[in-house]
Write a structure and sequence with these properties.
There is one protein chain. It contains eleven helices and 17 strands. By secondary structure, the protein is an alpha/beta fold. The chain folds into two domains: 285 residues, FAD/NAD(P)-binding domain; 105 residues. The strands form five sheets. Strands 1, 2, 3, 4, 5, 6 and 17 form a seven-stranded mixed β-sheet that branches. The protein has a four-stranded antiparallel β-sheet with strand order 11-12-8-13, with helices on one face. A hairpin with a 2-residue loop joins strand 4 and strand 5. It is globular. Bound molecules: flavin-adenine dinucleotide. Flavin-adenine dinucleotide binds next to helix 1, strand 4 and helix 10.
Length: 431
């Protein structure tokens, strides 16, 4: 590869904070609100224009799975209340199960502000600054230019682990056997759906027989590969539906060219999908495209080496870790097909049913080799299969809450992150 030597120059230190949260998705929100409430000067940096990550910029339809997060409960309660003012009055699940993305954006802004959290939007965290094996801050780039932010503790909630990777935490990408990563999806919304007749197939296994044929089978045959399944979610406004139907395989979201390809492929599928819905799906005959997500939905990228790594067996056995920082985590093993549409061909979702809630230990948030940095959300240390389960938003928020608590305790007591007494984290995040 040709190279160019960029001029070395002095850049300003634009802020100096106790806790710096990189990425404002569900994990970043949980981390920042908790650290702020514990009296830390806290800054959350987000590349897009709002908090929420995939939940808002990614246009996500609903919360799936659950966890012990108190902040999650607060978020959904507050969204429910605000939906009474800003949402459609007749809808009674708004904010609780279903997400109204515009309401959620406002609620998260309010909660961050109340916790004293400072937010910086439209800002890319470029890399970690590491001295003597410790992250002491990050380099950012935004409209003001390039600067450094100093922090006593940095939390990587970027989903892809951009900060941990640049700090030198060892990682691999995707499935252990072949490096393949779960497909990506751009969510989009349609209006004009007749709810009195509409069907809402919410899983790959939901088969819907119509006069023209079975929907999943027809989608597989008629939609442009690798699209080919029907996932439709009712929304909180009349006649609108959220579609989780675009699909692109072989995308590495840590590579800008690959990410762009993924986005273009998914966007090109929207028109054929809408034509399909109009022609074959009852209630969708008059549907029309409302909007698509600004953030391409990425399911999987890097898996980091942590002091501990969560394995699928830990989830299957519902192992109780004494050093738990997340409790009552629950979802299923959700591996999408990496060679086409629908579910993974190995049938993992069918064969490995999760018996009960599981715990996640603190060691999964502590990266190997590097101090001053915590992993959070979908980029904690976990295997490909375990990740397919803990990546959902309610668990990501709980992981953020745990990271924010640990960071605040370490900063208050002037101790390394790995010396934080886990019992104290448990007392704060536990039931
Ligand atoms: C298509 C799709 C459907 C899904 N469906 C559901 C569902 O129905 N229910 C459910 O609960 N979960 C669902 N999930 C899973 C869930 O949405 C994510 O795994 C979860 O949002 C992870 O949270 P996070 O905070 O770790 O990461 P993210 O939500 O990805 O948030 C990361 C944030 O960091 C920002 N960021 C990234 N890099 C940088 C950087 N370098 N500088 C600054 N900012 C940066 C991003 O803009 C983003 O806002 C779905 C995921 C996808 C992709």
């Amino acid at each position: 590869m040709n190279t160019y030597t960029e001029n070395t120059k002095n850049i300003p230190i634009s802020k100096d904070v106790d806790v710096l949260v990189c990425g404002g998705g569900p994990a970043g929100v949980g981390a920042a609100i908790r650290a702020g409430r514990m009296g830390m000067s806290t800054l959350v940096i987000e590349a897009f224009d709002c908090l929420g990550g995939v939940a808002t910029s990614g246009m996500m339809s609903h919360w799936t799975g659950h966890s012990s997060s108190k902040i999650l409960d607060e978020i959904t309660d507050r969204c429910f209340e605000k939906c009474k003012v800003l949402g459609w009055a007749e809808e009674n699940k708004c904010g609780k199960e279903k997400i109204n993305q515009e309401v959620l954006k406002i609620v998260l802004d309010e909660m961050a502000k109340e916790a004293g959290v400072e937010t910086l939007f439209y800002t890319l965290v470029c890399e970690a600054v590491v001295e003597n094996g410790r992250v002491i801050g990050v380099i950012i780039q935004n409209k003001s230019g390039r600067s450094m932010i100093k922090a006593k503790c940095v939390i990587d909630a970027t989903g892809d682990g951009d900060i941990a990777a640049s700090a030198g935490v060892p990682f691999y990408k995707g499935r252990e056997s072949d490096g393949k990563m779960q497909p990506c999806t751009i969510m989009f919304k349609i209006g004009g759906v007749d709810y009195s007749r509409a069907v809402f197939p919410g899983s790959f296994e939901t088969k819907v027989q119509t006069e023209k044929g079975e929907l999943q089978a027809m989608a597989k045959k008629l939609l442009p590969f690798p699209a080919g399944h029907v996932l439709l979610y009712s929304q909180t406004t009349p006649g609108t539906v959220c579609c989780n139907m675009t699909n692109c395989i072989d995308v590495d979201a840590t590579n800008a060219d690959s990410l762009t390809k993924g986005l273009k492929v998914c966007r090109s599928q929207i028109e054929p999908i809408i034509k399909f819905l109009k022609e074959f799906v009852p209630g969708y005959e008059k549907c029309w495209l409302m909007s698509s997500a600004s953030l391409l939905g990425i399911r999987e990228t890097r898996h980091f080496e942590g002091i501990q790594t969560l394995e699928a067996e830990d989830i299957l056995d519902a192992k109780f870790f004494d050093n738990w920082v997340v409790r009552r985590a629950f979802f299923n093993f959700d591996v999408h097909n990496m060679t086409g549409a629908s579910l993974d061909a190995t049938g993992i979702q069918h064969n490995w049913t999760q018996p009960k809630d599981y715990t996640i230990p603190y060691g999964c948030l502590l990266p190997k080799k590097i101090e001053g940095l915590l992993l959070s959300g979908r980029n904690i240390s976990g295997s490909h299969l375990a990740h397919s389960n803990f990546r959902v938003m309610p668990i990501a928020i709980a992981l953020g809450e745990a990271a924010g608590t640990a960071a605040a305790l370490a900063v208050k007591e002037h101790i390394p992150l790995r010396s934080v007494d886990v019992k104290r984290i448990q007392n704060i995040v536990g039931e």
